[in-house]
Write a structure and sequence with these properties.
Dihydrodipicolinate Reductase, domain 2; alpha/beta; four-stranded mixed beta sheet; binds iron/sulfur cluster; 2 domains; about 35% helix
Length: about 280
Amino acid sequence: MGKIREIDVSELIPLIRNACREMAMEYGCDIRDAIRQARETENERARSILDLLLQNAEIATSEQIPICQDTGMIIAFASVGQDVHFTGGSFQQALQEGVRQGYHDFALRASVVADPLYDRINTKDNTPAVIHTEITEGDKVQISLMAKGFGSENKSAVAMLTPADGEKGVIRFVLDTVKKAGPNACPPFIIGVGIGGTFEACALLSKKALLRPLQEKNSDVRYAALEDRLLQEVNALGIGPQGLHGVTTALKVQIEQMPTHIAGMPCAVNICCHVCRHAKVVI
Ligand code: SF4
């Protein structure tokens, strides 16, 4: 066993707070590059929309205001090294406090309601974040954060495909999901696809797939080829930037896969709008 490393949970709070600001106000370089590249192949109207998206992001960064009014719900994927011992309070509460301070201090819209079905009263500080924690080796804590807008989250879907559905079934499901999303999910999209696992595991995979930098492909050449094919077919739908037609319905399709049961092939599609906000905190 390695030497135990003590981490005071209060160290997390300013890091999470600042990550909330950064995600809301700064486009990732990979998204900016992908939009710049996409505009080269677009028709005049679609190109002008892509230019507006870039201009909007530049203004947001320079004036320190959010890129979009929907500043999302925070999802945190925390990898905690097994040689870490948290001190000074609760890890979960510190993470929530970082979110609370970030949304309050930078005047980001609070978009979370405490009860999903009945009261739907806004918690007014964008908490609670959804936290997924896994224990890893070592003495580091790494937290990947997303601020997910719900225009696109609402259009995501899970299908319990069968092994017989094969690659064709995956393609059909992804295309059907994107068609249903249409302009309402604020294209151009980044599309996360999870294949395998179980009902809930493939949904998580599809969300984790959105965290991968856009220039990286799946490390398995078969899945990398499927990512390219899906991107081509999605863009052939012609929905285009903001749904006003064009060849850039999506900037990238990212697949993550994992082992599954012999009787099934769960598949999830997590659609993300062009405001694909993520950040990483490492302690
Ligand atoms: S889906 Fe994305 S771009 Fe559309 S309103 Fe929500 S955060 Fe903004």
